[in-house]
Specification:
A hairpin with a 4-residue loop joins strand 3 and strand 4. The two termini are 14 Å apart. 14% of the residues are buried. This protein is 14% helix and 43% strand. Strands 1-2-3-4-5 form a five-stranded antiparallel sheet, covered by helices on one side. A two-stranded antiparallel ribbon has the order 6-7. It is mainly beta. The radius of gyration is 12 Å and the shape is globular. The chain contains two helices and seven strands.
């Protein structure tokens, strides 16, 4: 995520990671195959938002969070 110039926020309470990159924000919850996303200012201006279902959910392995990177990169416009 650092090379993409993105911000990552993790909440142990909600077991979710929020990633802010390229004017979009996505939320990945540990154990859920659903990733929600929105334009960073969607709440203010009514921009695009949505959700996708991935083949595999985010998981924690050896105290590290593993996320479905392909799905996340496509949300942010990377191939």
């Amino acid at each position: 995520m650092r090379d993409w110039r993105c911000s990552l926020f993790h909440s142990a309470d909600t077991r979710a990671a929020t990633i802010d990159c390229n004017g979009k924000v996505c939320k990945v919850t540990i154990g859920s195959p659903i990733i929600t996303w929105a334009e960073a200012d969607a709440w203010l201006y009514g921009g695009d938002a949505g959700m996708i279902e991935t083949d595999s959910p985010a998981v924690i392995v050896d105290n590290r969070t593993l996320v479905p990177l392909r799905a996340i990169s496509e949300i942010f416009g990377y191939e």
